[in-house]
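Private note to self, pasted from the team thread so I don't lose it. Backbone tokens:
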């Protein structure tokens, strides 16, 4: 891979990083004003950057092929419908918020696999904003940075994602989960259970065209809100389930997922605080079933992986993580057994699905 000096003929001035994330539980709840529980993973995006004296941006990414330098002028950002839009979106939104930028050269590398449900895009926008913050001394706190990350995707890229991923990239760390109320943006850090290994297994199925399906789910939630006369699904609780079941298909099931998933996040946080893995594990399986049957964002390969995990006596719980339509499964395994069990599940899964899975966590 080309280094910064080879690409730009000088040394970088700053280096910044941001991690990918795995969501433990609380899926498709953030844009409904609900709760999420992500944690940082070791895989991350790294940005080396040097300011220029003009207004040109030159950026190279090793995460895509062919890797080549792309350029544009600040103030002339035009969507190109590829990874450069995350960079262009950052400079566009930062400028619109009054943050003074000059041109820059940047080199991006990432170990977060794209389309894996582990938030490669937020780790890119957040690491780039961190690099720009130190290069240009921007007045930008970590929360604002996450909010701008969401606006980049909503307003420039055209994906109506929620706040979870940039919040996790900006504020989460390994070893604790970020228990976030996506409505108030209040958060607490909850230690991961001591008796378990966190496992993340990539299914080998990359989500494609997922933005369209994602935006459809979001619209369905909005339709459910209109029919139920609430602003957000967060305004409902399990006592509203009889009313929710009266909605037309599939809005009834979409809303039921969101309302029951919020309850599962609260129950999971309690179980984690009590270090009670026997209570935590079944919440993972219940969340998966709800995403598969009610929210319909799983795929057969991911369902197979979850069932293989369920057959392992050392796995407490497993579920699809992230937006869905491919991606990764998150599991909790008895401490000390995670990597070995993940490898066994990966092998059985590869034989039965024909896909190429990868154990991402524990990292080897
Ligand atoms: C994607 C989005 C998040 C969230 C998840 C589903 O990762 O970026 O905002 O909605 O899907 O929980």
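Design output:
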């Amino acid at each position: 891979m080309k280094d910064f000096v080879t690409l730009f003929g000088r040394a970088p001035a700053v280096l910044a990083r941001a991690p990918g994330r795995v969501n433990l539980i609380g899926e498709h709840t953030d844009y409904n004003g609900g709760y999420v529980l992500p944690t940082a993973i070791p895989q991350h995006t790294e940005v080396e950057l040097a300011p220029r004296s003009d207004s040109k941006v030159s950026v190279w990414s090793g995460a895509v092929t062919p890797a080549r330098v792309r350029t544009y002028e600040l103030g002339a950002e035009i969507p190109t419908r590829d990874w450069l839009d995350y960079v262009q979106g950052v400079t566009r939104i930062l400028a619109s918020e009054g943050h003074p930028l000059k041109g820059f050269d940047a080199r991006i590398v990432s170990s977060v696999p794209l389309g894996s449900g582990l938030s490669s895009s937020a780790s890119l926008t957040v690491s780039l904003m961190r690099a720009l913050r130190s290069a240009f001394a921007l007045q930008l706190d970590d929360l604002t940075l996450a909010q701008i990350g969401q606006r980049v995707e909503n307003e420039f890229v055209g994906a109506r994602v929620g706040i979870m991923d940039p919040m996790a990239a900006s504020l989460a760390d390994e070893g604790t989960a970020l228990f976030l109320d996506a409505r108030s943006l209040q958060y607490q850090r909850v230690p991961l259970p001591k008796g378990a290994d966190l496992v993340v297994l990539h299914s080998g199925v990359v989500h494609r065209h997922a933005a369209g399906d994602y935006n459809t789910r979001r619209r369905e939630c909005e339709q459910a809100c209109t029919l139920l006369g609430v602003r957000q699904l967060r305004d409902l609780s399990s006592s509203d389930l009889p009313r929710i079941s009266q909605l037309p298909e599939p809005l009834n099931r979409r809303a039921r997922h969101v309302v029951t998933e919020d309850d599962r996040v609260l129950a999971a946080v309690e179980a984690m605080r009590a270090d009670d893995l026997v209570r935590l594990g079944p919440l993972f399986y219940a969340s998966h079933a709800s995403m598969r049957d009610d929210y319909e964002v799983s795929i057969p390969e991911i369902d197979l992986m979850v069932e293989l995990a369920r057959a392992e006596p050392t796995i407490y719980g497993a579920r699809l993580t992230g937006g869905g339509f491919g991606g990764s499964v998150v599991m909790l395994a008895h401490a000390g057994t995670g990597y070995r069990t993940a490898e066994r599940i990966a092998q059985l899964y590869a034989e039965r699905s024909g896909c190429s899975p990868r154990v991402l966590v524990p990292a080897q």
